[in-house]
């Protein structure tokens, strides 16, 4: 058995000497140190030997196993180093080639348009004022001249946070940015209650309505509220401000029109249309063959709203509007479906 172990060791080392690649190293290991190798067969037969022979043969077999494992480790390292040396000698790396460009994140198109709107309003002297998204019924409706059970509340389907226990002043997700008017007026009026300072602010933010999702409406959308309050402000000031904004946003040649409308928090009220960019006013599917596209609603601040905000309607007047940046973005880029903005389709978002 001792002679057999010597022969196994000699044959294994001789075959290892000619191995020169990683695949051959692995094949050698399986052949000479694997479970089915001749050396492992010696270990399996130890139980058949006598008590005197078993420790002697076992020690000799372990010596051969350790010797072969050491030789294998040395050969594997030599083969690896040889492969690396060959690669360095034969292969070339052009370090002057440009690397792989990384994908750079962009602002969401709605955010881009929101910033564009606010930048224009800032140039016109409007200060940005933000308010919370979770409101009370009192601030979202009642302070804005929507009494309880008023039919105008049906214009805005609402997400109530306290669905089971509403009471008279439940918590809800704001349906418009108009509650910010009350917050802003009260904040400014608190600085000098006897003679509140004038206000000229823009209130951006996300709004939520429990509506059916269509190509023209979503359950969440951005809105920008505008508010100007002071002495001797008239509807002419509102018209001039809106006209200037439209020219800055849509171009000097943009045509607009005012249509009489109704909002509980303004009186008189109007809706603003811009001539359709798709058909040039001739009529198409986008503008429903009218030649005009609605961009915002506006009006003179209702006396009740001024009073709720801390401003005396006998002394002060003001105007307000609400516009949707996504709707304007659709007009500027001829996007036919508002759902694209919230679908997270990278192919669509990358175009902006």
Please describe the topology of this protein:
Layout: H1 2-17, H2 22-33, H3 38-44, H4 53-90, H5 109-123, E1 127-128, E2 134-136, H6 137-140, E3 171-173, H7 179-191, E4 199-208, E5 220-230, H8 235-250, E6 256-263, E7 266-275, E8 292-301, H9 303-308, E9 317-323, H10 325-333, H11 346-349
Parallel strand pairs: 1-4
Antiparallel strand pairs: 2-3, 4-5, 5-9, 6-7, 7-8, 8-9
Helix pairs in contact: 1-4, 2-4, 5-10
Calculate Rg over CA atoms: 40 Å
According to CATH, the homologous superfamily of the largest domain is Bira Bifunctional Protein, Domain 2
Spatially, the strands of the biggest sheet line up as: 1-4-5-9-8-7-6
- As for the CATH topology of the largest domain, it is BirA Bifunctional Protein, domain 2
Cα(first) to Cα(last) distance is: 80 Å
- What's the architecture of the largest domain in CATH terms? 2-Layer Sandwich
Low-confidence stretches: none
Strand content: 15-25%
Number of domain units: 2
What's the mean pLDDT score? 87
CATH class of the largest domain: Alpha Beta
Helix content: 25-40%
- Report the major sheet: 7 strands, mixed
The secondary-structure element order is HHHHHEEHEHEEHEEEHEHH
| Separate helix tally | 11
Approximate shape: elongated
Number of strands: 9
């Amino acid at each position: 058995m001792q002679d057999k172990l010597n022969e196994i060791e000699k044959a294994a080392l001789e075959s290892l000497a000619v191995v020169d690649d990683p695949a051959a190293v692995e094949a050698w290991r399986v052949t000479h140190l694997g479970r089915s190798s001749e050396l492992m067969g010696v270990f399996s037969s130890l139980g058949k030997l006598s008590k005197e022979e078993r420790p002697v043969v076992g020690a000799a077999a372990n010596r051969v196993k350790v010797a072969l494992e050491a030789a294998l480790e040395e050969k594997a390292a030599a083969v690896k180093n040889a492969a690396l040396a060959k690669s360095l000698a034969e292969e070339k790396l052009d370090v002057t080639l440009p690397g792989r460009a990384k994908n750079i994140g962009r602002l969401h198109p709605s955010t881009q348009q929101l910033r564009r709107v606010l930048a224009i309003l800032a140039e016109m002297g409007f200060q940005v004022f933000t308010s919370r998204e979770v409101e009370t019924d009192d601030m979202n409706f009642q302070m804005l001249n929507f009494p309880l059970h008023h039919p105008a509340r049906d214009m805005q389907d609402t997400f109530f946070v306290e669905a089971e226990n509403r009471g008279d002043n439940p918590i809800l997700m704001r349906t418009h940015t108009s509650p910010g008017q009350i917050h802003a007026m009260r904040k400014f009026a608190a600085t000098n209650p006897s003679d509140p300072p004038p206000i000229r602010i823009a209130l951006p933010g996300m709004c939520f309505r429990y509506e059916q999702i269509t190509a023209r409406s979503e359950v969440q959308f951005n809105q920008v509220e505008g508010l100007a309050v002071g002495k001797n402000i008239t509807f002419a000031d509102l018209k001039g401000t809106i006209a200037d904004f439209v020219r800055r946003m849509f171009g000097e040649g943009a045509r607009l029109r005012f249509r009489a409308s109704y909002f509980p928090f303004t009186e008189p009220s109007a809706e603003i249309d811009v001539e359709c960019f798709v058909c040039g006013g001739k009529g198409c599917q986008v503008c429903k063959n009218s030649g005009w596209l609605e961009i915002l609603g506006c009006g003179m601040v209702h006396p009740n709203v001024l009073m709720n905000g801390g401003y005396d309607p006998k002394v002060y007047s003001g105007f307000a509007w609400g516009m949707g940046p996504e709707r304007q973005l659709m007009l500027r880029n001829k996007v036919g479906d508002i759902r694209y903005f919230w679908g997270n389709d990278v192919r669509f978002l990358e175009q902006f």
